[in-house]
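Q: Convert this sequence to structure tokens.
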Amino acid sequence: MEPGIEIRTWLAPAKINLALHVTGRRADGYHLIDSLAVFTRFGDRLEIAPAAHDEFSVSGRYAASLPLDEGNLVVKARDALRREAGARHTPPVAIRLEKNLPIASGVGGGSSDAAAALSGLTRLWKLDVDDKALARVGLTLGADLPMCLEARPLVARGIGDEVSPLSAFPALGLVLVNPGVSVSTPEVFEALSRRDNEALPPLPKRLDFHAVRNWLGTTRNDLEAAARSIEPAIGEALKALKRADAAFARMSGSGATCFGLFETGNVAKRAAIEIRARHPDWFVAATRSMEVTDARD
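A:
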């Protein structure tokens, strides 16, 4: 990046599936889901700036295992948006990815990175691309992209592409824990014992910490048992969260990252310190989810 060039920074937040029901399977092999997802204030970060030629680099704790070519979703997102808008409107850019989230860990890291790239590049290039068009481009990169482009509390159905943002949802104190393992999403889906589970129950009309926790007790992550059969360390992560007095603990997505629910951000921070002391090699992060306030209140 050249000196004096304006650099914009974009957050690529972790996506946490608070509940995930598998409700069917399409003829093409894609699974149908019903999921309540939130996005956190902790995540990866992208720096994007104009450049003489395209550049892409990665730093951060989890940078080493990431490809720097079209095998990376950020590069794929840049190229897909360029095809959509035309090369004349999409001059070269330098993109730096700070990789703070574990790879293949059930928190949508790669998809969130790609979504941040799409959003950031749309603004940098001043493209006339509406949200629906951007979601269509995103869906060519992965089923999680429409969710990650919204990056706010939502219910996702279909293969993850039917997204319904919530009009109100509280900020939740969360601790994210990964015991240093990754799990293959296709392997987890293949290990499912059944694929025709019931959909999520309706959300409570009034949502606060206690209502969300109680509602989560009536839901599941249908991928958790299959993921734990492949990687038993997920069970150790859940035990660590419960030992640290999480009000609720569950695996996110297809694993192996688990989340614990805490009543305040400070309580979550103390729990994270406790877990990190016992498991210094694990990924442990205290954060809060992004809230949505109902304007009618």
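The chain has two domains: 8-165, 173-288.
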